[in-house]
Amino acid sequence: MSQQTDADTTDHRFVVRELGPRCFVVDDTITALSYDMRFTREAAQRAADRRNA
Question: Could you tell me the keywords of this UniProt record (predicted)?
Fold first, then answer.
């Protein structure tokens, strides 16, 4: 099942998802689009935080 049950992921529209080693994207949970490919989780999280602000 691919349901997200973590409280942090359900509260925010933009969440970080890992595609592979050193490849993270910011996913829009409403439109199912991906934005901001980054090499580190930290950089992707900063991008997601900016979009959620």
Answer: Plasmid
Question: Distance (Å, rounded) from C-alpha 39 to C-alpha 30?
Answer: 24
Q: Which of 39, 32, 40 is nearest to 15 (CA)?
A: 32
Q: Angle at the Cα of 10 (from 27 to 32), degrees rounded to 5? A: 30
**In one letter, which amino acid is 26?**
V
pTM of the model: 0.72
Instruction: Count other C-beta atoms under 10 Å from residue 25's C-beta.
Output: 18
What average pLDDT values come out for the chain (53 residues) when binned by 10 residues?
49 92 94 91 95 92
Q: Which stretches within the chain are classed as H helix?
A: 7-11, 41-52
